[in-house]
Amino acid sequence: MKMNNNPKLLLALMALLVVVVAIDQAEAQSNICNMSVSDLMKCKPSVTPPNPTQPTADCCSALSHADLHCLCGYKNSKLLPSFGIDPNLAIQLPRKCNLPHPPNC
């Protein structure tokens, strides 16, 4: 079967390519500073007022793989409060997980 003789097949392949690229971009955007959205949610109870919990082992494990310097870039962002996250509590997480606190953060 020649592709130039089957425009439906060509159209289907192009649509599949668009879907694959869209999925790849969505996955790339769902990672923040080497933490997936799922990893970030593991830590949310520890950074959400008024009664934050101690970070869980799962949270600390996820945080240990994160780019902490990158996460520091969000401390003055309005993005965190829009998700109910207190930046001051977030900054305390590395210490609570016995991880090195990034300098100048």
From TrEMBL:
Ranges for domain Bifunctional inhibitor/plant lipid transfer protein/seed storage helical: 33-105
Swiss-Prot/TrEMBL keywords: Signal
InterPro entries the record matches: Bifun_inhib/LTP/seed_sf (IPR036312), Bifunc_inhib/LTP/seed_store (IPR016140), DIR1-like (IPR039265), NsLTP-like (IPR044741)
Superkingdom classification of source: Eukaryota
Signal peptide boundaries: 1-28
Annotated Gene3D superfamilies: Plant lipid-transfer and hydrophobic proteins (1.10.110.10)
Record's keyword annotation contains Ion transport: no
Protein name, per record: Bifunctional inhibitor/plant lipid transfer protein/seed storage helical domain-containing protein
